[in-house]
Structures are given as structure tokens and as C-alpha cells.
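Hi Y.,

Following your request, here is the sequence exactly as I used it, all 46 residues.
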Amino acid sequence: MCGTSGGGFALMTESISYSNQAELGGVYVFAQRDGPSTGTPTFTAQ
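Below is the corresponding structure, written out as C-alpha cells. Let me know if you'd prefer a different format.
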């Protein structure tokens, strides 16, 4: 199990792509934490 937040998932997509090309089985769970946010965005939209 490996957890990540923000831009960390962008670094994990390469290994997910390789596992799909090699036809390896895997379970991926995308979840969002519960509770209030910090109030500041991680990435700007503009």
C-alpha cells in the first residue's frame, strides 16, 4: 500500500502504466480524506 497527496500521484502514474503494459494485476483505490481543508489550495488554477 502506498499513499500520496497532491502532486505525488503524478509521479506514481509511470509505474501504474508499466504494470498495465506488463499485464500485471493490481488494485488501485482513489479516496479523498474526510474533514475540513486547510484553506489554501495546493495548486493554483490560473
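The helical segments are 8-21.

Thanks again,
Q.
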